[in-house]
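Audit log entry. Action: structure prediction of a protein-small molecule complex. Ligand: zinc ion. The ligand was supplied as SMILES and no pocket hint was given, so placement is left entirely to the predictor. Protonation state taken as written. Sequence taken verbatim from the request; no trimming, no tag removal. Recorded inputs:
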Amino acid sequence: MNLVVDADRVLADLKELHERHGGPDGARRLAWSEDWLSAREWFRGKLDEIDGISVDRDEAGNVWVELPGANDDGGFVIVGSHLDAVPSGGWLDGCLGVMGALGVLRALAASGSPPPVTVRLVDWADEEGARFGRSLLGSSAAAGTLDPDDVRDLRDAKGTRLQDALSACDVDLDGAGAATSRLEGALAYLELHIEQGPVLERDGLSVGVVTGTAGVERHAVRIRGQAVQGGGFPMDARRDALVAGARLVLAVREAARDARSRATVGAIAVRPAIPTAVPGLCELTIDQRHPDADALAAMVNEVHDAAARIAVDERVAIDFERIWAIAPVAFDDDLVALGEETAREVTGGSVRLFSGALHDAAAVASAGVPAVMLFVQSAGGISHAPEEDTAPEHLAAGVRTLARLADRVIARSARPPG
Ligand SMILES: [Zn+2]
């Protein structure tokens, strides 16, 4: 018998959350803020309406909800996402996955008998990293990949240290690693999320299945030429750091030629930055992504080689500093196949996509838990903005696909190993 999820109620929950913690100027759910705590308090109220579950918070601030299964030592299936949002963000990023998981839990609890295995819902803490610049904080603590010393002294725009902001929410950063116990015995992790890109809309599909998340290589680049008087200095004798930087920006784009590569120069600054001086210094950031590790390495090498040629041509010095990197994460093959089959059944079609953006599911997968994500169409591919939106029929299709997939994964997990 199929699990029956009330997708309309999930949509109503999403709208209610947006009325209380969003509005025309976008989401107000920045992690470790009063707004976020009160959104979580609202969510707690929704959970209190469900019989037979327990709710608690782990050492890293992630909220866990448990519906015990008939076989309570047979492991558990996790469904989740994050309630936190970037400032002035949209109404669906993260919340869709949490409210969808709530819908699944409600349906399971109302079905009259306990699920064959235990089901847990998780609301990860600080997925966005919008305040301190460190994404996936709660999920990487649970995955065992968070080093407190790496993040302790990160500061927000007001100068507050990350460690102190966590402490104000009763989370002890040095104890956060104990959250790893929450993934012990996990059989599968499922996450529903908006696509944040244009592929599903372009292909006229409601739901796609995500094969994994791209690897990221992020560098800060410093180009040193010579600042001189712009009116007086001849063109052929200049050592213009910005001209070299402009050529490098084009080389970054050129190196991202295959359909799965992404490359962004999102920040650039010059000195002395006045109309009458040739820029002597140019600093920029390069963010390169690819789901294949070798292809990502090739992109990085190509840009380094281009920089070496540009440095000679323009007579400048170009230094790269690697500021962040993460390897590509592949989701579980069996779950991807099951997700694709389920999406086809429920919505009439589906496609496999990779995610250029990071998600908590990548942290969970890197801890060895079989994971998969479902994406629902995003209007115009816009997210992290108040304009973020998805038509109700696509949202409902996503919720129904999540429920059907969860039902199948739960049933499959309950089978004795053959
Ligand atoms: Zn998200």
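Audit: result stored. The chain has a mean pLDDT of 96. The pocket of zinc ion is lined by residues 82, 93-94, 127, 193 (CB under 6 Å).
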